[in-house]
Amino acid sequence: MKKLLYISFLCLSIACKKSSDPIPDLTSKLVGTYVDIQTDNTFGFKYITTTKWTVSRVDNDEIKIDHVAVTEIEAPAGYPGTFNPTKPVVSVIDGIKIEKDDRFAFDRLVEWTSDSDVFKTTVIVDAVLAGRDLDVKINETTDGATTDDRVIMKRQ
User: Superkingdom of this entry's organism (predicted)?
Assistant: First the structure.
């Protein structure tokens, strides 16, 4: 009887053991480089901001984003002054856990640099693949000023 009880316990423990299968790679569809270009005209000056996200795999369920944004300013015809190109805004957003292979979201305080100065912005992002591209809802708060936007970042 002891033998039967032992064998039953052994079979039960093997059957109930959690699977040690690795987490499937959820990052493969998201990994890549995405670019968005926004243009704004203010007082005759044209501002062209190019934002580039490089999404990299950290683990099967984790990604990081290398973010670079550059703004070019074009003066109106006949304007006597000149402009130096703006310094890029650079940040790294890491530790982004993903649960679905076609989307990610995060709510973070992100440090970024521009011209050697360090700034902090609260960033809330919800991004989903739209074909090859990335449909991004973004909310940013810096020094009490908040912006909401939705952009389609084109995969390169």
Answer: Bacteria
